[in-house]
Amino acid sequence: MQKFLTSVSIAALGLTLSLGAPAPLTAESLAGSYLAGRSAAGSNDYAVAAQYYAAALARDPENVELMDSATLAYLALGNIERALPLAKAIETTGQRSQAARMVITAGLVDDGSYAELAAQEIQTDGISPWVDGLVKAWALIGSDDVDAAMAQFDSISTDAGMRGIVMYHKALAYGTVGNYEAAEALFEQDAPGAAARTRRGVIARVEILSQLGRNDDAVKAITDAFSGATDSELDTIIDKLTAGETLPFSQAPTARAGLAEVFYTFAALLRAEQANDYYTLLYARIARYLRPEHVDAVLLTADLLEALGQHPLAIAEYRSVDDKDPAFHVAELGRAAALRRLGKADQAIEVLEQLTRSHGDLAVVHSTLGDILRAQDEDQAAIVAYTKALDLTGEGDNRAWFLYFSRGIAHSQDGNEEAAEDDFRAALAINPDQPQVLNYLGYSLVEEQRKLDEALDMIERAVAASPNSGYIVDSLGWVYYRLGRYDEAVVQMERAVELEAVDPVVNDHLGDVYWAVGRKREAQFQWKRALSFIEFASSDTEAEPDRIRRKLEVGLDAVLQEEGADPLKVAHDN
User: Fold this and answer.
1) Per-residue model confidence as pLDDT tens digits over 433-454
2) What is the CATH number of domain 446-574?
3) Which one of 93, 400, 486, 540 is most buried, by most CB atoms within 10 A?
4) What tens digit of pLDDT does each residue of 181-220 get?
5) For 497-536, how does the pLDDT look when each residue is reduced to its tens digit (9 = 90+)?
6) How far apart are CA 171 and CA 207, in angstroms?
7) Angle at 491 between CA 485 and CA 492, to 5 degrees
8) 374 and 405 in contact (C-beta within 8 Å)?
9) What is the pLDDT of residues 396-429, one digit of tens each?
10) Longest Cα pair distance anywhere in the chain, in angstroms?
């Protein structure tokens, strides 16, 4: 979802979900459970947090803070059924809890208690004024009081920052009750603003136009919105429209779906505003509960869980997407990524290989498989996957540069430098100033000690494009070193170490450069630093610990002689 409410601050949404000062705890065992729950919640381990809070509540069932903490944990897990009795208990105490109100709102919707929901007073016992205002309007739709609902939408649309969202929901509500003319009038006036230009907004309008018998206009709306760049779901919609089918109005077919859309809207908004992922997750969970088939809510929930480090929970969300859904491949790509982050690369590869059989016409499936195969040093298999992705990429598609670049890296890792260079140059033919490609090819040429003038030009261009990339600055220092321009190399290498202070390769290179200008004690210090960082490197590194140790024993000149390499062009002694 695009960021479409920049004037609304996160603080104004009222996201202080916890209660005030904690109630006193009554026993050491209670305190232990409470503190363990807090620790687990702080680590985003909501399942464990819920268990500890439940244990604490068993000892102190009247403790409102424990109720609130448990409600938050259950809500983060998406377990509304367990959260609901706690939320109701909190409200009976007269305490205000936004988490409890969110859960109670979901419970009322689930019960179909729209009249009760519509009767609640905004800004007194609700979630936040804007959410409450939209909830009330949709509850009135659920109560079949359409006129009152539309008046409610109008009453909360006076804030300039909120008007677009409110009018978007009003258009959806018109669609829900079958008044497609009124819904399209709002879209045509651009009343929903940027909200109508999100993917969901475009599809909602397309469905409304189709209901009005305006399929040609619906196709044009897709083309205009996405500049002709479609995907499998949009292609299917276009095919149906072109065939004369009337699309059902699926974005908010019921009041319950409309209420789910309220919570999804604010979850997406908070994510766009880069708000706290945990609080954003709570909104996404309510949307997911109210409308389990809301795939965008599922994907957002999974993405938030990944951001919070809860990969198993994210995997469960991804797995819930039906294999007939147009977004199934997106969910499977997400599941593979989560499995990989969880250290289960073999399972991730299995997911992707299965996806190549069910969605083998999508380049992204093969390129993603190539990425994980390359990370597992299965370079030849990765090359096959990238080649398939390139075959599926349309001629003239500028995104092909990245596929050539990725395949070139795989060729390089497989020892086929000629094929690697061909791919890197193909990538540069499409994207001539791409700094990563310029740097990789330039650095490769430096390591092979050929075409050094061209390599220098490439790397200088890369540094100009990404002056704060320590790895690219390191490449520039290294080509100066290879060219015997040691004083210039020192300047660049020292800058590279400033940018990548704990990278073993960069520190090793700086040691070599210091040795070349006669700063031998400093060189030894840098080599020792490089050795110390190799053990803690977060990924594979090309730094060679045995070679570094040998340099510490006999010096760089002797190592170069032992290797049969060219000696340093200039040697200075302090």
Assistant:
1) 999 999 999 999 988 888 889 9
2) 1.25.40.10
3) 486
4) 999 999 999 999 999 999 999 999 999 999 999 999 999 9
5) 999 999 999 999 999 999 999 999 999 999 999 999 987 6
6) 12
7) 85
8) no
9) 888 899 999 999 999 999 999 999 999 999 999 9
10) 90
The residue with tokens 């804007």 is 130
**How far is the CA of 155 from the CAs of 5, 152, 166, 213, 409, in angstroms?**
18, 5, 10, 32, 58
What's the CA gap between 138 and 140, in Å, rounded? Answer: 5
Burial of 228 (0-12, 13-18, 19+ CB in 10 A): exposed
CB 504 within 8 A of CB 471: no
Q: Tell me, which fold does domain 360-432 have in CATH?
A: 1.25.40
- Are the folds of 360-432 and 446-574 the same? yes
Cα separation, 240 vs 208, in Å, equals: 14
Domain positions in the chain are 360-432, 446-574
Q: How far apart are CA 389 and CA 375, in angstroms?
A: 17
Nearest CA to 297 out of 308, 309, 282, 311 is that of: 282
User: Alpha-carbon distance 544 to 534, whole Å?
Assistant: 9
**Residue 117: how many CB atoms within 10 A of its CB?**
24
Residue 572 token pair: 């200075």
Q: Which residues contact 364 (CB under 8 A, 6 or more apart)?
A: 329, 333, 389
Residue 325 φ then ψ, to 5°:
-75, 140
Residue 150 in contact with residue 179, Cβ under 8 Å? no
